[in-house]
Amino acid sequence: MSDSVDTGKRRFLTTLTSVTGGIAVVGMAYPFLASMAPSARAQAAGAPVEVDISKIQPGQMIVELWRKQPVWILRRTPQNLEDLAKVQAYLSDPTSDKSKQPEYAKNQYRSRKPEYLVMIGICTHLGCSPKLRPEVGAADLGGSAWMGGFFCPCHGSRFDLAGRVYKGSPAPINLAIPPYRYINDSTILIGDDTGAKA
Known about the structure:
This protein is α+β, with helices and mostly antiparallel strands. It is 22% helix and 20% strand.
């Protein structure tokens, strides 16, 4: 019987044990760290929601959920932006003095960047969800006074493509703008506008 120690075998077993232990630690840490990210339920309840806007085509609108409310993100065309000035005389609150929006969205476009409209898709009358009606001159919505916008089928409220309410609509104020900011050119964060420059 030999009293010598096989150091090679010992080194191999020590390394194997260390690697196995490291894998176990990573395996246990991942679920713990993943549990710290807000769930879909938490995001819907009010946590900020990150949205990729890079694939939205001009004239297209997507819908995201924030605080259990639909948030519309509409990419307006250059023509849409020109048409906003043409409907001012038909609007109840064209300068958004009575409406709910962050200060940076109190402009003709009601947005940080004219091209993108970020807005809560709930009518300010009784809480229905208006529908996008982008066609210009729709006879059932005012003919030449209609340059595209949103129509609430519940009680007939009409809004332009900046969410500003038309005169004579049951809705008392413009559609609400949530707090939001750009993380980069292709991503926005709905529900948080801290630290944003524009």
